[in-house]
Amino acid sequence: MLTFTSEGKLEKDHVTVTLGDFELKIGLLGSGLPTPEEVLLASALSCLMLTVYYVAREKDVEIKGMEGYIEGTMDPKGFQGLPGVPPGLLEVKYWVKVVSRSERIKEVLEESERRCPLKDTLTRPVKVEVNWEIKTE
Known about the structure:
GMP Synthetase, Chain A, domain 3; 4 helices; alpha+beta
């Protein structure tokens, strides 16, 4: 079992997230920084592409190149609190172009889609627990 962690600190209209020795600033829409939704999509796209790379390497299938695009659609009315409208992404679509001459590339892509951790996370229910600590100063 693996556990991944991240820490964050709110700084006005953005959060500085620490991932090991790396810091990432994530902001509200219009802040000029990537939004949480964009970071989620970037993570999902890179996860699928890296899973393809990993599975191809396992199966000794050569990939000469790969490029991807991902988009997620949301209705901002949900975030603004309109009842009955989910606040998160409603749909996610991937487009990935893979350059390979291997006859087994389709097998690699199908297996990669099944094994991709973030695609799996986005497509099945996941237990989520939020723990609040309130301090008065």
